[in-house]
Amino acid sequence: MNSRSYIIPTFLAVSLHAVVLTLLFNSWFGHADDERKVTPRHVQASIVDLTSKSKASEAQAKKREEARKKAEELKKQQAEQKKAEDAKQEAERKKAEDAKQEAERKKAEEVKQEAERKKAEEQKKEAERKKAEVAKQEAERKKAEQAKKLAEQKKAEEAKRKKEAERKKAEEAKRKKEAERKKAEEAKRKKEAERKKAEEAKRKKDAERKKAEAAKRKKEAERKKAEAERKKAEAALQAALDAEIAEEARIAQELADAASVNSYTAYIKGEIQRRWSRPPSARNGMKVTLTIHLFPTGEVDNVYVKRSSGDALFDESAIRAVKRVERFDQLQDMQSALFDRQFRKFDLLFNPGDLRQ
Hints:
Blueprint: H1 7-36, H2 55-274, E1 288-294, E2 300-307, H3 312-325, H4 336-342, E3 345-350
Antiparallel strand pairs: 1-2, 1-3
Helix pairs in contact: 1-2, 2-3
């Protein structure tokens, strides 16, 4: 139910309560004002002088009695008057009260009637509202029912459409899958062709590479062969040059050695001849070949005759001369190789030149 349907009844109920409270308030305070407006009662009194002298006391008493009677009469009259006034006032008050009550009753009746009217009107409105609400609910129910039917119809149509869409989707998926399968097969075939092409290219490339490598190896072998031949020729040439140089060096060394040997031999012969003492049997042309052993220091290790001169004294004098030398000092400056080769053990032909004929 819509919340707006309670606004109007709530407003009417609040308004009705406000009107009732206003009337009650006016009734209460209006009555109080009426009560406060009650007319006050007036009392008339007169003073009687009773202090007259004794003579006049009777008269006075009489007067007083009369006065008293008058007073009583007056009181009585006043009382009656007052009573009448009170009765009148009471009657007026009752009348006024009755009128007021009547007015209040009428007013209450009017209020009640107004309230009943309003209530009836409210009830009528409420009935109309309920009727309208029922009609609205009925309309909403019908609308809801119609909406439900429409929704069910739409749902059915949506289900049908969805089913059709799913069927189309399935067909599309199947078509797509078939296309993908064909595409995959095409890709596979293409890939296989590319693989074979690649293998063929690789095989061709390998053959070319092997051919190039064989050519390279052949060229390298030819280069190595040429290099070997060149190196061999260079080595042969270098060997020939080395041999020639060595031969030249050897010849130069032999010449130098021969010069040194001749020089040292002349030095040795001179040293021996300076220490040789000519024996008496020595004659011109005598010569003896001695074999001499020397130490590297030039000291004489051993000496003996290899080929005799035929004269023992001559041979002995030659050996003594060698021993007298004891050491050939200059031989210490000789190269050790040359010493070992030429003078460690050598033969010396001793042939002094100043012998007699």
